[in-house]
Amino acid sequence: MKLGRLNHIGVATPSIADSIVFYREVMGATKIHEPFDLPEQGVKVCFVDTPTDTGLNGTQIELIEPLPGNTSIAGFLEKNPAGGQHHMCYEVPDIHAAKAEFEAMGKRVLGEPRIGAHGTPIFFVHPKDMGGVLTEIMETPKGAH
Amino acid sequence: MKLGRLNHIGVATPSIADSIVFYREVMGATKIHEPFDLPEQGVKVCFVDTPTDTGLNGTQIELIEPLPGNTSIAGFLEKNPAGGQHHMCYEVPDIHAAKAEFEAMGKRVLGEPRIGAHGTPIFFVHPKDMGGVLTEIMETPKGAH
């Protein structure tokens, strides 16, 4: 495969509300999107844009807060109560082709492609097969960029 | 302050040589810079470019391997033997102004500004004050972008 755009860095937080204040007041973010629930994944998410020279398409920060019943993010927060860097997400043109390529390389794809926070199919690859980085692969939104 | 460009994501690795193979062969990176030692920080580093629609200025991945005698990255790798996400780095126009602003907000700046991997002054801010994210602040290279 060919390396795709670094769409976002997933950052777990115990409170998206508090993180929004942090990114606005401390870091000076000016484009913070509306938080929303992603019940299929058991999380609430909120995207923070980072600037680029062109103004286009900076890598986003995806704030992630566990919804009740979530175990994976809740477990991460037990180990990292203040929150922290959780995953890195790259875009691909075709999610099924990407899944087949990772699997052909012996990488553990975690489940079938499902709709992610940007409304396109995503999957995760096991961090132990990816240099310790939990890696999300997402299909580029049609018409994006 | 105003949120600056997300310059890079620091990713610790036990072997930059192995990580270069991973980013080239598995992730399909096409622009991998020459690794070099940064002895003042006790690390070897290597930048991997990620693509953007304009071809300009994607957020980089900074691979970081400890040099002998390094304790901070070596300690991180003891807890995360495969490596993993280590820090996030944002650009600012003036490193001393940024340091004063973080300190005025009660954030623990770790040491005085020093020359970082891109040849401009940098400092780190304590992750416990930054939502669990070890945060590097770097002055934008003059004439860059």
From TrEMBL, chains A, B:
Gene3D superfamilies: 2,3-Dihydroxybiphenyl 1,2-Dioxygenase, domain 1 (3.10.180.10)
Family: Belongs to the methylmalonyl-CoA epimerase family.
PROSITE patterns linked: VOC
Keywords: Metal-binding
Regions that span the bilayer: none
GO MF: metal ion binding; methylmalonyl-CoA epimerase activity
VOC domain boundaries: 5-140
InterPro entries, per the entry: Glyas_Bleomycin-R_OHBP_Dase, MeMalonyl-CoA_epimerase, MMCE/EMCE_epimerase, VOC_core
Any Gene Ontology biological process: L-methylmalonyl-CoA metabolic process
The organism of origin for this protein: Sphingopyxis indica
This protein's name: Methylmalonyl-CoA epimerase
